[in-house]
Write a structure and sequence with these properties.
Strand 2 (9-13) and strand 3 (17-23) form a beta hairpin. This protein has helices spanning 144-148, 173-178, 277-290; strands at 2-4, 9-13, 17-23, 28-35, 40-43, 50-56, 59-63, 70-74, 77-82, 90-97, 103-112, 116-126, 132-137, 152-154, 166-170, 193-195, 199-208, 213-219, 224-229, 246-256, 260-272, 297-299. The protein has three helices and 22 strands. It has a single domain, classed as Beta-galactosidase, Chain A, domain 5, CATH 2.70.98. By secondary structure, it is mostly beta strands.
Length: 309
């Protein structure tokens, strides 16, 4: 990997992935990503792995992607640090790690300096327009998948019931309620979501049907409140939701308190799996079992924020 501090640009080649991660002190994320064995473009211009909105119950705490950060070089990637500030009384870090041939890992940490109900870090990913989105939901008893103990694969296309709404797969009913508690009607870039059935796997994906290349974005179940995806326009034609080609992870959705530290991990992994649910499940299992990140809450000694000037 090659880091250019003047441009704030990290160019990297893993075994299967080649791309660019921007961290220029204000903007950040993977702005170009190619699956090298096939040449399939996964992101152009992206970004992927972009820490976007900072939210709480009926509250908008700003956008990390529009807030200045400090960049620190680490041996296997980059660390971005957002200091606590009056609008967002929490210290936030995101560390990109390039350790696998076909994956990009990001560790996200937050330390509370105030009390926020249902605090959420909203992570955005914008894929190339040629790809189709998908996810997995829990079957109902009448579904054949329920008898087989398998999740239902969902690849939504525009439908009158939810056109204009992002399709959200929540962890549970509490996570579903967060999308209508007022947080998305605060600040700027308002959006609306349709909470659907709970996710069966804590991941979403975009796939290229011609090559069989899938790109999965996943989190740890205990820390992932919801997966939201843009539907494919189908015969209805493009609209503001389908044009985003987005996949969002809602991290935590839990009550943050002063002096509490949270840490979690997400992974973007790509391979030729042809949309196979078993292969997707195997990738998540490998991520969950290999992750060295400890999830949960850990008290810290000093809860006094140091504000960035």
């Amino acid at each position: 990997m090659t880091w250019n501090p003047d441009l704030g640009e990290l160019r990297f080649i893993t075994g299967d992935l080649e791309g660019t991660f921007i961290a220029d002190g204000l903007h950040h994320g993977v702005t170009h990503l190619v699956h090298r064995p096939t040449g399939v473009v996964l992101a152009r211009p992206g970004p992927l792995l972009n820490v976007y909105r900072l939210l709480c119950r009926d509250g908008w705490l700003g956008e990390a992607r529009a807030t200045r950060h400090v960049v620190q070089r680490v041996p296997d990637g980059l660390r971005l640090v957002w200091a606590a500030r009056p609008a967002h009384l929490a210290h936030l870090e995101a560390t990109l790690r390039l350790q696998a041939d076909n994956a990009l890992d990001m560790e996200i940490e937050v330390t509370g300096h105030a009390a926020y109900e249902d605090y959420e870090v909203f992570l955005s990913n914008y894929f190339d327009h040629s790809l189709q989105s998908g996810g997995y939901v829990v079957p109902v008893p009448e579904d054949p998948e329920a008898k087989e103990g398998r999740p239902i694969q969902l690849e939504p296309k525009a439908h009158p019931v939810y056109r204009g709404l992002y399709v959200t797969l929540p962890r549970d009913s509490h996570a579903a309620q967060m999308f209508w508690d007022g947080r998305w009607h605060r600040g700027r870039n308002w959006a609306e979501f349709m909470p659907a059935r709970p996710y069966a796997l804590p991941l979403g994906y975009y796939r290229d049907s011609a090559s069989g290349v899938d790109a999965l974005v996943m989190g740890l179940r205990a820390d992932l409140a919801a997966v939201s995806i843009a539907y494919h326009p189908g015969d209805a034609g493009p609209d503001n939701v389908s044009n985003h080609h987005s996949l969002y992870l809602s991290l935590w959705g839990q009550n943050l308190r002063p002096g509490v530290h949270w840490r979690t991990a997400v992974r973007l992994v790509a391979g030729r799996w042809n949309g196979d649910p078993d292969a997707h499940r195997a990738q998540w299992d490998a991520f969950a079992t290999s992750s060295t990140v400890r999830t949960g809450s850990f008290p810290v000694d000093n809860a006094s924020p140091v504000f960035e000037r």
